[in-house]
Structures are given as C-alpha cells and as structure tokens.
Design a protein that fits this description.
Layout (H helix, E strand, L loop, with lengths): L1 E6 L2 E8 L2 E8 L2 H16 L12 H15 L2 H21 L11 H13 L1 E2 L14 E2 L3 H20 L27 H10 L5 H10 L3 H5 L6 E2 L4 E4 L12 E4 L2 H12 L22 H12 L8 H13 L4 H8 L4 H4 L9 H7 L6
Antiparallel strand pairs: 1-2, 2-3, 4-5, 6-7, 7-8
Helix pairs in contact: 2-3, 6-10, 7-9, 7-11
Amino acid sequence: MARIYKRGRIWYLDVSAGGRRIRKRVGTSKKVAELALKDAEVKVARKEFGFADKDMVLEKFLDQYLDYCSANHQASTTNRYRAVIDHFRSFLADQRQDVVFVSQVNTEVIDQYKVWRKDALVNPNGQPVDEPTEYTRKGARAHTINFEIGALKTVFNQGIKWGYVKENPTGKVKKLKVNDARPVRFLTHEECQQLLEACPEDMYPIYATFLYTGMRKAELENLEWDDVDFERGKIMIRRKESWQPKTGERKIPMSSLVARLLSDLHDRRPEGSTYVFADPKTSGKIRTKLREKLIRIAQQAGISDLTKVHTLRHTFASHLVMKGVDLPTVQKLMGHSDIQTTMIYAHLAPDHLADAVNRISFES
C-alpha cells in the first residue's frame, strides 16, 4: 500500500510493503509527489521496492557490526567505528526518528547526516579526560565528515554481505571539498629538545623512539625484542598473531642513539617480558595512556598544540624532508602505501624540484 500526504508545504510518500513501512519526504510539488506515488505502487506490486532479503532493526544491525568489528579488527579500529556509529545514532535520534529499519537508510538520510555534522558542536581535541572544558566549535571538518561517510560505507557493505541491504546508501553520496585542512603539525628542533628534557625517566625512551624512528603508536606498542636486530641495526615491523601492521611489514634503520637507548632498555628489561616497552606492572604489552601523558608533558614543557602522539611521527618525516631526504625514501621509512600520503611533507623541501632539474645538462 502507498499514499501521499501533506504537512505544511511539504508532500510525503508513505509506503508499506512486506510488513515494513517507509515515509519519505518528496517536496513541495504535488505533481512530483503523485509521480512518486505511482512509481512506488508499481514497485510494491512487483515486490521491487528495495527491501533486502531479510530486513533488520537498524539499532540491532549497528550493534551486530560493532561485535563483528571487535572480533576482526584491532581495538583502535573498533573504537573509530564506534565513534562514527555513535555520531550516526545521535543524528537519527535528533533528526530522523522515523528511520527504524536498515532498509530505510538511503542516500537522502546520509546527505542529511553530512549537513547535521557540519552544524553539530564538536569538542576540541587534546583535553585530558579529567580536565573537561566548556569550549566547543561548531561543525566537524570536511575531511572528518568524509572519513565518517567512508566508515559508514564499510558498515553498509557488510550489511550487503549479510543480506540486510540491497545497495549501499552511501554509494551516490558526494564527498565534501576539503578546503579546511590544517597544515601538518610537527615539532621544531627546539620543541623536540624541550619535550625530551621534560620527559620523566620512564617515558623518555618511548617518546624518543617515536621521534627518532617515526613508528606508529600501534607499532611501538606491539614491538617485541625479537623484532630488534642489534647486529644489523634494524627495527623490524612484523605481523603478530594478534596484530598486523597497517601497511605491511618493513624495516627501520636504527640510529646510534636509538641503538644505545634500546640496548639500555634490553639490559633492564623485566624478567620474562617479550615487549620492548612493557607494562611495568604486568610485563605484558604497555597499557599507559600515551596520548594523555604526552599532553601533560607538553604542557609542562610549554609546547602548544601538541595533542596527538601521531605528531611525533609527523615530526620524524618533516625533519627528514627538511634535511634533504627524497620523498620515496621517506615513504619507505614511514611505511606509506601511497606516495600521495608522503606528499604532504613536500612543501617543506621547496628547493628539491629545482635541484632535480638543475642536475640535467646537455652542454658539452
């Protein structure tokens, strides 16, 4: 059964099929609404209205996806998807309470979500959890919204595999133009010195290793002594039974400073511990909240806007480029799968292109 009705100036389409009901905003034109009604009636008659083989309550589907994510991905990945799904749930509660089943999520709903996220209040980054702030800014950034749409695309692709969705509702959604991206934050030479001087004895090896190797946080947390080859001077980023590197395995050369630092740690390692940066209480994988510790140390050192451990990775790459290291080499050291990722540092070496072409001469 299908019908149209009007509220204020807006016409709506109300369709019931297969025990499911969809209400859809059509617009201000009665003629368009009548055309939409005829199309819906034909689809209902042909059983082609777009319901999947087995529809599901959206809330239950999202919970099921998070359970799947938890079983198949790292905790950090699951937390990112949970944050996106929480935003999506907040949007539905605030704007689209009529969306109950998975089949009711369409392109229009996702486009409305984009608009909602651009207007929503966003908490500032970098505040320690026990020091809440009242400061907020309005609107998630374009690249953040694009990431969230990509995450929802992955969620609904899994829904297709499970038979809950016929087509992905994000498929026709256009990405926002990113013109609000901030320059990559990296520490100056002086800030690096300030940070390391302010580090407590137990944290110095961790943040120094980040700065001198460019490792990702998960790579450092999962680093074991078997991955450190003192003889060849290499740190090997390798797969583990419970973890795998984001972009595959690679080797990072150790500077003499890092070699000495890790050698000293090795001599003082807890008995029976296999992890380079072990938890002091359990000797297992480190559980210290490295981001929160970093924020506090940065504040004590008088360093502004240092709110992410990843900034130390950016610092490593940025200083390599500023020292004249070519981008393909930086790409290999960083473990970037795409050179375009490494190109964010290209502006730090404004003379490298000119130097390259000046090496060519056909004069005798």
